[in-house]
Design brief:
Elements: H1 3-9, H2 28-41, H3 57-69, H4 72-86
Helix pairs in contact: 2-3
Length: 126
């Protein structure tokens, strides 16, 4: 990972708890490299090679969850979009809006309910 990218990411990471149980944690930068390795190479967390020095797959997986809960990746995404837009490096003509990211209109009508087509027992059976 390039130093410029790490300089953007490092301040976003939550501090490690002082009284964390277990051995000293893997360095955040190395752990992020392990996460990127797993995602880029499409391997399972259990297959992350320990000899690469990224820590275990489980360590990287837990750290990914912790950072996700802290909103690190959302914030990083916004920062990168701002920087790329400022550098005129985004092609907005190819943008795609996903309903997951857009709130539904308040007060909009809900679709009508449909009757179930599931089979039911006949009324005259015991």
């Amino acid at each position: 990972m390039e130093d410029e990218l790490w300089e953007l990411i490092e301040p976003l990471l939550p501090p490690w708890p002082r009284k964390a149980p277990g051995p000293r944690p893997v360095d955040d930068r190395r752990c992020l490299q392990g996460i990127l390795y797993v995602l880029y190479n499409d391997v399972s967390w259990q297959l992350l090679p320990l000899e690469l020095g990224f820590g275990s797959g489980q360590t990287c997986w837990r750290r990914l969850g912790r950072w996700h809960e802290a909103g690190v990746f959302e914030t990083l995404h916004r920062i990168l979009l701002v920087e790329l837009h400022a550098a005129d490096a985004l092609d907005w003509t190819r943008a795609c809006v996903d309903a997951f990211h857009i709130r539904a209109k308040k007060g909009a009508r809900r679709p009508a309910r449909h009757r179930s087509t599931a089979g039911r027992r006949a009324v005259n059976t015991i």
